[in-house]
């Protein structure tokens, strides 16, 4: 009896709900679209306040997400971020002040929201998502991501897919992912193994084509070519012993001056300090308004899921699961169902056909995997069913397989043969069927 | 003595803080933001307005003022991020203003706790503001006053709702709102004039392709692709009565011609410059005509009949219109995409384009100067404005701002010349328009206009606050009538089955709105605040293209629609 009282008191007590007057209009009423199973009233309130949510990223999106979740009635929130606060964050990461520069984002953000929204508990972890294991991720009922790195998204996606066990419905962890770039962004809901996953959607985020090294080395034409030359070639030649720190203004200044000098030699105009910083750090423009839109859309989906269907959510099987947003020319959203790929290396079980030039050496092929929109693997190891072709580690195996790097593909594999590729950045393995072209 | 390194101008503190946004709207956009003073007329739970301001204070507008007569209640603490427990019972305007100011020490903030009635009745009370945002619920007579102010003072007015899972906003801009810097997609901006080259470009291409068949591989593989296209166009013209490829079929044939001319015995295998040429054929052989929307700008009354105090935009537009009449093309933007080429030759090619662009700017500037002296204008137009205009000439935009709908007791909503397009949107299957949601918002406003919490016409009563069923019935009725009035005004006939589907949609939207009982959901208000602030930034900076003129967001389906009203 006492136990029941203890758990229901903060929820049932009228005093404590006064604050949630607005929210309760939605939680205690049904609408024309609410799910039949929606636990209208007490049930919805309880399911929301008991949901344990993980927020990955406490940056531009993360700050918004934490605020939104706290004011949506979530009470147990965890947040992971490995970064510290930089002055260039302050134009949008509104939980941070000038005095916070240099401190851990997750710490400052958690404290701020806890102070502002009474009753919410926010547990920060200042580190990498890769530090945590399955047991850690298993405790959450859903995960909201506000990341700027594709690699981290792929890692958490693969982890959540591999955690799913179809005999245990608690192992299904909805993943809600937002991303922005300037006036554009997207919000999507992934139900591991049920909807298409981040790996299925990887080609929606093709990496920018790299400028060939020979252009940088011999025929630069654009100011960016001169900057890349300073970054990739000149630094390596002249300051090899110093690790480049793109946050160190002395380092950026050095690169800028090198690039400027080279640009002058080739009569190329337009190298600036700001451009140097932009190219070297791969800066993506970011503004408060787009982050607000995408984070809110993500949290709106999280809310609909956590309330047990106060309204239908993206990712409902057979329904839309992806919203694309563009705001530079009027406002445009495109909401659609991104379909699951049966040959997805993470959530599918078929080997994906991959067209390759059979005259390529294994090394050329592996280098190319980093840039191909559908693979984007930077440190791949590869084997066939019968033999190891190349392993990045351990060193003994690397040494043993290294000679294969210089062999042509058609000397190593047959047309149509299946290969398995692994990469330390992404859990699991990628199965490809090689097609010669 | 070693060369002294060039002096480095590192970024200023402000440039560092605003780096990520300056990469979008630049120093001129930032200066415009810093000169703005935004008024928020806050009402209801008040979240959407404050979330909007948050996204404007962060990037550094000059000033904001919040008018809000509400006192902080317990319910505010569960939905509003810019209030704390200790503010309970205090003025919401004051405390939200203070917490917003914390976000950016460079922004000034003020507040007004006077009720909106008396505030709007004070003469010139709206004068200090460069942009006004009003939030629902608001009495129609107050909104009408703001609309009249927007008409006479040309100050942009925004009106926004956030109710439950839905949001809406409308923008009332001045009747002629020109934008020079529309930031078009890079893909659509290249204007290379390959079918209408000028003599220096022809000359350059001839030099670079001279002896093309006998060149060594190294030279052949580095001919800039623009020169290749120009060279093979000449070859093509010899066989086609001096005409360039006219249609898709001919362009495809021309593409094959170039593709066959590529060498296959080069050391690298294929030739990248030929591949680039082949890839560019389809998009670069269109005649460089100005779009109809740009031409219509030249025809505008304001452009044709300049006066001494015409805004700069129209003086330059007139000067460019003259240029266009004379040459049949707009001034050359002068940018060249990157392509396989040797550094020196690429820079030469860039200069061919840059020099022509400079020449065009000089001619437009001459036109401007002669207009100025004819009109006896005092302050000369700045050269950099002429340059920017010439560079973006093909993509300038003129937005025709106008008042949005305000519900009026006893009078149906008037759609005027938007009625037909509104009915088309209504009955369109793909893309599906969310215009029924807009009807529901209008009906919501109509309900608010008719009901007060008490008999004293005090605080408005919001649909569904206490009795969702009864109120829902009423709002659905009003919304359906709004739809019927529109169909009638447009003189359209809607098929029975379509009509009954539409009725269902309107009813569902209205019922879901009423379910909220006037509540804001923080997520939806944050999202709407993101949208509104983004549009405010576009309007203040006069960059990018704002919504024309109404947007709705459906948080159930996660979809949006733009509606012209």
From TrEMBL, chain A:
This is NEDD8-activating enzyme E1 catalytic subunit. One of its GO terms (biological process) is protein neddylation. Residues 374-386 have a biased composition (Basic and acidic residues). It comes from Amniculicola lignicola CBS 123094. One of its GO terms (molecular function) is ATP binding. Signal peptide: none annotated. GO terms for cellular component: cytoplasm; nucleus. Its EC number is 6.2.1.64. SUPFAM superfamilies: Activating enzymes of the ubiquitin-like proteins.
From TrEMBL, chain B:
The keyword Phosphoprotein does not apply. Keywords: Ubl conjugation pathway. Pathway: Protein modification; protein neddylation. Residues 18-559 form the THIF-type NAD/FAD binding fold domain. Pfam families: ThiF. GO terms for biological process: protein neddylation. InterPro entries: APP-BP1 (IPR030667), ThiF/MoeB/HesA (IPR045886), ThiF_NAD_FAD-bd (IPR000594), Ubiquitin-activating_enz (IPR035985). GO terms for cellular component: cytoplasm. GO terms for molecular function: NEDD8 activating enzyme activity. Regulatory subunit of the dimeric UBA3-ULA1 E1 enzyme. Belongs to the ubiquitin-activating E1 family. ULA1 subfamily. This is NEDD8-activating enzyme E1 regulatory subunit.
């Amino acid at each position: 009896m006492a136990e029941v009282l203890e758990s229901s008191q903060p929820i049932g007590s009228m005093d404590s709900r006064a604050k949630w007057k607005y929210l309760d209009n939605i939680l205690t009423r049904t609408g024309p679209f609410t799910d039949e199973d929606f636990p209208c009233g007490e049930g919805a309130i309880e399911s929301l306040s008991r949901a344990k949510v993980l927020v990955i990223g406490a940056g531009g999106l993360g700050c918004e997400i934490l605020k939104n979740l706290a004011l949506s009635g979530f009470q147990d929130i965890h947040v992971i971020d490995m970064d510290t606060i930089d002055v260039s964050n302050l134009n949008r990461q509104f939980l941070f002040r000038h005095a916070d520069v240099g401190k851990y984002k997750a710490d400052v953000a958690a404290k701020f929201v806890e102070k502002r929204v009474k009753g919410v508990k926010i547990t920060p972890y200042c580190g990498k998502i890769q530090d945590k294991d399955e047991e850690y991720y298993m405790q959450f009922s859903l995960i909201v991501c506000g990341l700027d790195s594709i690699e981290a998204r792929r890692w958490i996606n693969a982890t959540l897919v591999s955690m799913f066990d179809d005999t245990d419905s608690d192992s299904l962890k909805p993943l809600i992912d937002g991303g922005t770039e300037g006036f554009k962004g997207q919000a999507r809901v992934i139900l591991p193994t049920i909807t298409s996953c981040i790996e299925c959607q990887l080609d929606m985020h093709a990496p920018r084509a790299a400028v060939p090294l020979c252009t940088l080395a011999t025929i630069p034409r654009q100011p960016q070519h001169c900057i890349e030359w300073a970054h990739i070639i000149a630094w390596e030649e002249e300051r090899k012993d110093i690790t480049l720190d793109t946050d160190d203004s002395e380092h950026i200044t050095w690169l800028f001056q090198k690039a400027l000098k080279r640009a002058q030699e080739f009569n190329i105009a337009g190298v600036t300090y700001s451009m140097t910083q932009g190219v070297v750090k791969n800066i993506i423009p970011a503004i408060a308004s787009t982050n607000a839109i995408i984070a809110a859309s993500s949290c709106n989906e999280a809310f609909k899921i956590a309330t047990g269907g106060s309204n239908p959510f993206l990712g409902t099987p057979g329904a839309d699961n992806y919203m694309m947003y563009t705001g530079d020319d009027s406002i445009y959203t495109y909401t659609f169902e991104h379909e699951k790929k049966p040959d997805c290396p993470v959530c599918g079980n078929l080997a994906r056909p991959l067209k390759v030039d059979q005259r390529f050496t294994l090394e050329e092929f592996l280098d190319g995997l980093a840039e191909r929109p559908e693979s984007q693997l930077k440190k791949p190891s590869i084997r066939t069913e019968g033999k190891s072709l190349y392993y990045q580690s351990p060193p003994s195996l690397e040494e043993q397989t290294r000679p294969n790097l210089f062999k042509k593909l058609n000397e190593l594999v047959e047309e149509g043969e299946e290969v398995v590729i692994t990469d330390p950045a992404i859990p699991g393995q990628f199965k490809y069927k090689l097609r010669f072209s | 003595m070693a060369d002294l390194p060039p002096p480095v101008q590192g970024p200023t503190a402000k440039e560092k803080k605003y780096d990520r946004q300056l990469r979008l709207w630049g120093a001129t956009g930032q200066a415009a933001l810093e000169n703005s003073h935004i008024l928020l007329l806050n009402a209801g739970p008040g979240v959407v307005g404050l979330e909007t301001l948050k996204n404007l204070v962060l990037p550094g507008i000059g000033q904001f003022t919040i008018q809000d007569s509400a006192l902080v209640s317990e319910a505010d603490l569960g939905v509003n991020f810019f209030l704390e427990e200790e503010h309970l019972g205090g003025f919401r305007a004051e405390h939200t203003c203070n917490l917003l100011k914390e976000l950016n020490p460079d922004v000034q903030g003020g507040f007004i706790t006077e009720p909106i009635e008396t505030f709007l009745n004070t003469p010139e009370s709206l004068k200090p503001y460069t942009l006004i945002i009003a939030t629902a619920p608001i009495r129609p007579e107050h909104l009408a006053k703001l609309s009249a102010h927007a008409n006479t003072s040309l100050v942009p007015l925004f009106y926004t709702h956030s109710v439950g899972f839905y949001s809406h906003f409308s923008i009332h801009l001045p009747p002629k709102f020109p934008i020079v810097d529309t930031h078009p997609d890079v893909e659509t901006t290249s204007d290379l004039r390959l079918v209408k080259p000028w003599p220096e470009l022809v000359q350059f291409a001839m030099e670079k392709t001279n002896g093309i068949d006998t060149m060594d591989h190294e030279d052949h593989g580095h001919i800039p692709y623009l020169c290749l296209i120009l060279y093979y166009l000449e070859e093509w013209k010899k066989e086609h009565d001096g005409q360039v490829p006219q249609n898709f079929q001919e362009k495809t044939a021309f593409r094959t011609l170039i593709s066959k001319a590529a060498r296959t015995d080069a050391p690298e295998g294929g030739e990248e410059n030929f591949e680039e040429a082949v890839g560019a054929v389809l998009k670069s052989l269109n005649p460089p005509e100005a779009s109809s929307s740009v031409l219509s700008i030249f025809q505008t009354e304001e452009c044709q009949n300049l006066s001494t105090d015409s805004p700069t935009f129209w003086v330059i537009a007139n000067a460019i219109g003259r240029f266009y009449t004379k040459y049949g093309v707009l001034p050359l933007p002068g940018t060249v995409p990157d392509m396989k080429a040797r550094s020196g030759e690429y820079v030469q090619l860039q200069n061919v384009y840059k020099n022509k662009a400079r020449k065009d700017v000089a001619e437009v500037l001459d036109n401007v100067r002669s207009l100025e002296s004819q009109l006896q204008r005092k302050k000369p137009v700045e050269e950099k404005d002429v340059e920017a205009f010439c560079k973006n000439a093909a993509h300038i935009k003129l937005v025709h701002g106008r008042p949005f709908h305000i519900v009026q007791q006893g009078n149906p909503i008037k759609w005027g010349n938007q009625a037909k397009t509104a009915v088309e949107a209504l009955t369109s299957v793909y893309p599906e328009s969310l215009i029924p949601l807009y009807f529901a918002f209008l009906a919501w406003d109509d309900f608010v206009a008719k009901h007060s919490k008490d008999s004293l016409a005090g605080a408005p009563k919001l649909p569904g606050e206490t009795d969702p069923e009864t109120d829902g019935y009423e709002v659905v009725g009003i919304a359906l009538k709004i739809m019927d009035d529109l169909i009638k005004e447009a003189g359209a006939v809607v098929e029975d089955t379509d009509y009954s589907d539409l009725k269902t949609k309107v009813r569902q939207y209205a019922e879901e709105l009423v379910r909220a009982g006037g509540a804001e959901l923080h997520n939806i208000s944050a999202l709407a605040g993101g949208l509104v602030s983004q549009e405010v930034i576009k309007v203040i900076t006069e960059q990018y293209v704002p919504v024309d003129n109404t947007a709705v967001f459906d948080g159930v389906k996660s979809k949006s629609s733009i509606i012209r009203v």
